[in-house]
Amino acid sequence: MMHGNVANASDQSLISLLIVEDEPRYLESTRLLLASQVNSIDTALTATQAFGLLAQKRYNLALLDLHLPDGNGHEVMAYIRAHQPECRIIVASGDSEIESAIRSLRLGAYDYLRKPYEPDELINTVRNVLRKLHLEHENARMAHQLEQSEQWHRLLVNTSPDVIYTLDASGHFTYLNDSIESTLGYLPGELIGRDYTALITPDQADVALYHFNERRTGKRATRNFELLLRRKEDLLSSLTERTSDQRVVVELSAMGMYRPTSLGMGEFLGSYGVARDISARKQAEATIAFQAYHDLLTGLPNRSLFKDRLGQAMVYAKRHGQTMATLFLDMDHFKVVNDTLGHLVGDGLLQALAQRLRISLREGDTLSRIGGDEFMLLLPHIRSRDNAAYIAQKIITSLKQPFNIEGHELYVGMSIGIAIYPEDGDNIETLIKHADIAMYHAKDHGRNDYKFFTQDLHKSFTGRLAIENEMRHALEKKEFEVFYQPQVAVESQRIRGMEALIRWNHPTRGLVSPNEFIPIAEECGLIAPISEWVLSEAFLQAKRWRESASPPISVAINLSARQIEHPQFVDKFVHSLHKHKVSGQGIEIEITETTLMRDMDGAIDKLKKLAEMGVEISIDDFGTGYSPHRPNQQ
């Protein structure tokens, strides 16, 4: 709450700001950005924290996000209106609905900013609020200024966080407040009598002549001009937390001083100026800009920056008749690292991989992480396809040496797809898509290799997408069927059991071979629900046979690696047994040796639990029939 003895409501030391934002990094960046505008800043990540701060302290300004983990911003706004009506509210939200903005304004919001916003937009909005507060309390400020003595005035100047200075007519310092020491490392006495150029970097000498040594007044005078000043080189590091960079970015406002006469301005006396250190704000702006266009884990350009550079490279290549290449890189079996060693090791591997990939590249190439274990590489200047192949092979060769991450020795393979401009695509999206298709072709043919895009691959990929889309609806439309293949005992020539085999009865294609749809189901994540459906159908049929008068018949079901690797595999298997009221006796599951070797310890523990229930386990080493993943073709 503002009182009558407050000197200046626009003075940042008298403004209390509350920032309520649920994203910690966004919160810290915003705090640093506004630190040069407002000194007293409190922050809250939740509505509960905000209510606690509002109950203890009064605020002039609140910057409020509408989406909070334990409530919403409108509830906080209502509390502020009821208990601190003098507080100005700026709403900053990613909500694109116009009703949200209207409701915020009706609740008394001073302004509504839609995320993401530019730093200057936020700063200007805050400045407008400060100016409004200034106008509302102008009488109080004027009264306070009249009451203060020269001693108090000098104290306020010296405790200001801004550097305040005066120059004589020849450009020599005649006054500097104490903030010069914390900002630039000089004691005021070290600069009094010296020329102002002692603080100016050589590359800014010309602009400083017309701004730091200002002679103009009124609207023509310098306002909020960014200038680089030089710190004292022998300043002890213990006096400040600044980096070794000896240059400080300031926002300068300055004007000329003239002796008043009856005819107006008379003799030029010198310059008066205020320099505000905005290094933290500039760093926050740089951080926000970096985060917008770079991957935070590896520091590599993200998808947006990659596409921007790819577009520029296309324009240049087209203008000069040149060739360039786009490579899509995907790590082989990265999921195994995350699942078995944890995300900390996985993140460390990605960082180390990014560093090693950089070494294999030329100056001017762009390596980007576009998400997960996927990278893209732009080769803007190549003479032929062989150049792209050379780089791809160089990358694969560089990965033969293991990585040591958190004490784990890890080997990495990389599948790479290559698309050439302009023959494989003349626009950004097409070139990226074709490189992606070529990468999947490399995975399908053994991994840890590179493949070039061809039109035949495009046709194959298009057919693959069609199967995937149709398969997503096949379960709900009940297009899958389970066939049972007899297992005959050679000696007695009697049927000893049945093997459950899946088939897809497509409405237009007829019976689709499992070889066509099962590999696609594995890659797109549909194999799990399909496998669970096969189990349910097989258990139901086993129950029917057991309830009939026929001799006992065992039912064999093939299991996939991904099915067994699922953390809830045993629970789901047992639940399905109980659901259909079938015991483990007479149920046989078959797995391949490859499936067992993928996670030996984990798989054995799970299979032991099933064996304890009477389930028979058999290992198929021949690969001629393995159900949901590679259904028997007989």
Structural commentary:
The protein has 634 residues and is an alpha/beta fold. The chain folds into four domains: 12-141, Response regulator (Rossmann fold); 148-284, PAS domain (Beta-Lactamase); 297-453, Alpha-Beta Plaits; 472-620, TIM Barrel (Alpha-Beta Barrel). 43% of the residues lie in helices and 25% in strands. The strands form six sheets. Strands 20, 21, 22, 23, 24 and 25 form a six-stranded mixed sheet that branches. Strands 2-1-3-6-7 form a five-stranded parallel sheet, sandwiched between helices. A hairpin with a 3-residue loop joins β21 and β22 (510-512). It starts with 15 loop residues before the first strand and ends in a 14-residue tail after the last strand. The model is unreliable at 1-13, 234-244 and 621-634 (pLDDT under 50).
What key phrases describe this protein's structure?
six-stranded mixed beta sheet; 634 residues; Alpha-Beta Plaits; alpha/beta; disordered N terminus; Rossmann fold
